[in-house]
Amino acid sequence: MENTYPDGDNYVCADCGHEWPMAQAAHADADAGAVVKDANGTVLSDGDSVVLIKDLKVKGSLITLKQCAKVKSIRLVGGDHEVDCKMDAGSFMLKACFLKKV
Fold first, then answer.
1. Percent residues over pLDDT 70 in the chain
2. HEC secondary structure over 12-75
3. DSSP code of 9?
4. CA of 99: how far to CAs of 8, 10, 12, 31, 38, in Å?
5. Rounded to two decimals, what is the model's pTM?
6. What is the Cα–Cα distance from 31 to 9, expressed in whole angstroms?
């Protein structure tokens, strides 16, 4: 991820403030092949279109991603934020639990 940085024994996501151990990041490549499911349990794949199920505030910014905003052509990546996408407000890494497949 672009906005992560090491802090002691952890990595920190500057966008959402999530922290995870560096040892876990080594296993993230192995998890890249894991099945990613949306909020309803539907399996997501690269290139799917999804919508947000709730408003999401972008940490460190005044931007709020609004509920029902449609995101086209998602890309699945490993780690805690499974979905990489581009929206009108910029590029974001999102958790699949806040998305619903269209």
1. 89
2. EECCCCCEEEHHHHHHHHHHCCCCEECCCCCEECCCCCEEECCCEECCCCCCEECCCCEECCCE
3. T
4. 32, 27, 22, 20, 6
5. 0.65
6. 20
Supply 50's token pair: 């999804």
What's the burial of 62, exposed, middle or buried (CB within 10 Å: 0-12/13-18/19+)?
A: exposed
Q: Which residue has the tokens 């920190």?
A: 12
Question: Domains of the chain, with CATH numbers?
Answer: 4-101 (2.30.30.40)
Q: pLDDT tens digits, residue range 39-55?
A: 999 999 999 999 999 99
The residue behind tokens 């092949």 is: 33
Q: What CA–CA distance (Å, rounded) separates 24 from 33?
A: 15
